[in-house]
Design brief:
The protein has about 475 residues and is α+β, with helices and mostly antiparallel strands. The chain contains 19 helices and eight strands. Helix content is about 65%, strand content about 5%. α1 packs across α3, α14 runs antiparallel to α15 and α14 packs antiparallel against α17.
């Protein structure tokens, strides 16, 4: 189903209160994320009826319109053009930003606010993680097969450069999100990966470049932002341009070297050890829980807060063992959607499923969640059952010593095959992952077909009366 991005954007804008009510515009892989000065002015019922809108998520400080992959990028661009027109007065926009910030302070819990901001740090990095992960996989295949030996060194450099400097990008985004100067956050975070840290000893241990990884970079940039804000209010204006940057880098840099890198390194090591223990010791049960609970996280938009964990595992081990397990949730959703398509001959539902199923097969679950399973209710639970079954399947093989991981994050479903990695060879790794997908599809379909609460409509009463008459049953007479 083709969606006219300009028409969709034009239809959405007045339903969220017009340009003056929009204080920010952004998007992720599937959602148009809007900041609204007054969320009560949005017409949710009318928004859900706009062609191309698959659902809504109203969160503290954020109004999210689910549009699906690909479509959301085009609609966001068209929406930004509409909002940027002169009709949106600057004064109203500034007032809207104040109202939005006040509402966030009043309604958002500190924990949920922290999770959203943490996601905002890492989500912009996903395209580079995907691209470099795919290139790393291609380079691995070339090395294993001995093909193009002259190209593989260059390809390795291209694929690994971003991961080698990811700490800098995390620092830039962290400072930007938490109100600091991005380049200062990046400068302090760069200390984490600088070769010179090998000459520094903290707590009796010689530091290693990259120790603490993205968590150390995140903590370093947070400290830099805190120091910068402290300096801004105390350093004389005439000296601010000189002293504030110098003090920020000095104080936060020393704090990073003599505290944060060591602590973040310990936390990173614990994350890696915990993930390995979880799957090798309780793999089937862990997979059952993780695969079954991931769809609710996606529904709430909290799945992106796992990005630092995945990135830490990729830095340490070369792949994350958690993503293939979590990917089973999307496969369970696909199985449930197919069962709904078979059991419920509703034209609008079937049209939505046909439009959203390709994205679902590639692991983007929101279109099916908000367009199909969640509105129907019970199919959402049966989809979770499918994800749990597939997660248990992958986790069971992890208990046997056959790890399935991915070299990057972002894609899922079928799109994850080019990124697969493991400890037993690509063939076995791909077979286990495919078996997990098949298990999730099957269980999600069967559970929804049997217990999803969707039924074909009963036969018309006239047909039943005619059959009863043929069988000789008495019929009522008109009185």
């Amino acid at each position: 189903m083709h969606i006219d991005s300009s028409s969709t954007a034009a239809a959405i804008l007045p339903l969220v209160g017009g340009p003056a009510n929009v204080t920010s515009v952004a998007h992720c892989m599937t959602r148009l994320r809007l900041g609204l000065a007054d969320p009560s002015r949005a017409d949710e019922e009318a928004l859900r009826a706009v062609p191309g809108v698959l659902g809504l998520v109203v969160d503290d400080g954020s109004y999210q319109v689910v549009l699906g992959p690909g479509v959301v990028t085009r609609v966001t661009a068209a929406f930004e053009l509409l909002v940027a027109r002169p009709s949106a007065a600057d004064e109203l926009g500034a007032r809207g930003a104040e109202l939005r910030e006040e509402r966030r302070r009043n309604n958002a819990t500190p924990f949920r606010s922290w999770l959203r901001r943490l996601a905002a740090v890492f989500v912009p990095l996903i395209p580079a993680l995907i691209g470099c992960g795919i290139l790393a996989g291609v380079n691995g295949l070339l090395l294993n097969t001995g093909l193009l030996p002259g190209l593989t060194p260059a390809l390795a450099a291209v694929a690994s450069a971003f991961m080698a400097l990811i700490a800098v990008f995390v620092g830039l985004n962290t400072a930007k999100e938490f109100g600091g100067t991005p380049v200062l956050g990046g400068a302090v975070a760069a200390i984490v990966v600088h070769p010179g840290v090998a000459k520094v000893t903290a707590f009796g241990v010689t530091l290693a470049p990259g120790q603490g990884g993205v968590l150390g970079a995140l903590a370093a940039a947070l400290l830099a932002t805190r120091v910068e804000k402290w300096c801004r209010g105390r350093v004389p204006e005439a000296l601010d341009v000189l002293l504030t940057p110098a003090l920020t880098v000095l104080v936060a840099g020393l704090g990073t070297l003599y505290g944060l890198m060591y602590a973040a390194g310990a936390v990173s090591s614990a994350i890696g050890a915990a993930a390995n223990w979880l799957l090798t010791t309780t793999g089937a049960f862990a997979g059952l829980v993780l695969g079954g609970l991931f769809l609710p996280l996606v529904m709430l938009g909290l799945h992106q807060t796992l990005i630092p964990v995945h990135t830490t595992l990729i830095e340490q081990q070369g792949y994350t063992v958690l993503l293939p397990v979590l990917a089973m949730a999307g496969a369970g959703q696909v199985g449930a959607a197919v069962a709904v398509y078979v059991r419920l001959p509703d034209v609008s539902i079937r049209t939505t499923i046909r439009a959203a199923l390709p994205a679902g097969l590639l692991g983007v679950g929101e279109p099916l969640i908000y367009g199909v399973s969640l509105p129907l209710g019970r199919p959402f639970l049966t989809a979770c059952a499918g994800g749990a079954a597939g997660g248990a399947f992958v986790g069971f093989f992890a208990m046997l010593g056959d790890k399935v991981g991915t070299t990057a994050i972002g894609p899922s479903g079928w799109a994850l095959f080019p990124l697969l990695a493991g400890n037993r060879g690509l063939g076995l790794t791909a077979a286990i992952y495919a078996g997990g997908l098949l298990t999730s599809y099957t269980v999600g379909f069967a559970a929804t077909y049997a217990f999803g609460g969707v039924r074909r409509p009963a036969d018309p009463p006239k047909k039943k009366t005619a059959e009863a008459t043929k069988a000789g049953a008495p019929t009522a007479k008109a009185g």
